[in-house]
Amino acid sequence: MPLDPTSLAGKTFPLRAVFDRAVIGAGEAGIAAALAAVQAGESVALLDEQPLDPGLIGLDIPFLFGGRIGAAVQNPARMEERVVAARPGLEAAMEAGVEVVLGVSVWGGFPGSPFILGLADRATAWLIGARQITIAAGARDVVLPFEGWELPGVMGARGLDAAHRVLGDFTGNRVAVIGAGEVSWGDIALRLAEPCEVKVLGALEVEGIAWKDGSWRELACDTVVLAVDAAPNVEMADLLGAGIAWDAARGGFVAAALPPGVTIAGDAAGTAPVARAPWMQHALSDPARMICACEEVRAGDLRALRPPRYLGAEGPEAGLAAIGTGSQDQVKRLTRAGMGPCQGRRCRDSVQALLAQEVPRMASYRAPLRPLPLAVLSALEEDPALRANWTGWFGIAEQWLPHWEPVPENAVFIGGRLSEVGK
After folding, report:
1. Among 26, 194, 340, 373, which has the highest number of CB atoms less than 10 A from its own CB?
2. Parallel, antiparallel, or unpaired for β 125-135 and 262-264?
3. pLDDT score of 44
4. What is the DSSP string of 164-181?
């Protein structure tokens, strides 16, 4: 039986280069892994998305920057100099023969021999191959949903570190810190190390913070830094087929079983034990608390599995109990929590904490892991045989016909166009 021409089977993917090892993430752990590999005689590509496209910074990728980045990031050359200066090991890696690629997002990873990685910069997208992959993608800040957390000026501790130490373009002045995590910079006006009720003051952005520890108190500030907890970045491990499991001692969901050829280094393999539970329990106790700011889904909406209000529909009467052993993906589809512009980057941990007692599963990841403009993705090179049929879906002849037009007899969809057998 001939192969379906619309299938990927038998197709090739043009690769710009093939390396013995690709290291994803150029922090301390990634640089160390790249140096060790090149010293062992491997050809190595060290990939890092810093300096970021300003558009990604605006979407709080990969950290929660909270609108506290200045205009200097618009200059890519200047930002690249700052990234290299902030990470002295990069120069040593370059001198040792590592191919260091900065300002490039790894948006996809695909198992195979070799593995295929999808890369993109501000102008184009392309593919490379790697016989082995080391994931050194670090960790992300856990976002705590208190009143007003969605206002500009609320940022993560890692976002603060990247804004100040790596990019050198932090625009805040007076900082309040929530949590006991390390914060490397700031005129710290306040640190709240114990769980308490918190709300941000301000109409359009942070103007101050109020907290209740016995009685309400207030303090003026322009930035609130979340240092409650960190979670390992497992997106790429999930894409590459690793088994993902919850391990509170390692910071949350981690890669528990890696496929051959994949290793993990640094914080991506695990962080400190989970510390978010008391903060989350306190924050999620209010049914009116905003959980998903993009889709305006509140804690009560999630518990009731209530569809978005703009649909004018009701959720199941039994709420979460109605889905039994469902997954967070299922909850996402029912309520749209995590399906807004941030794609769950801010609310993922809050949703999981709220559902943990009844749906203890992680929502899955899929490519692209980073938002890609269509102009960038369309530049991706393709095998001619694949491009000829990409507009066809299982060869269904009538898919591009108006519904009121009859389908010609013996019609087929070949080479991206509608044809008739025998003509």
Report:
1. 26
2. parallel
3. 98
4. IIIS--B---SEEEESSS
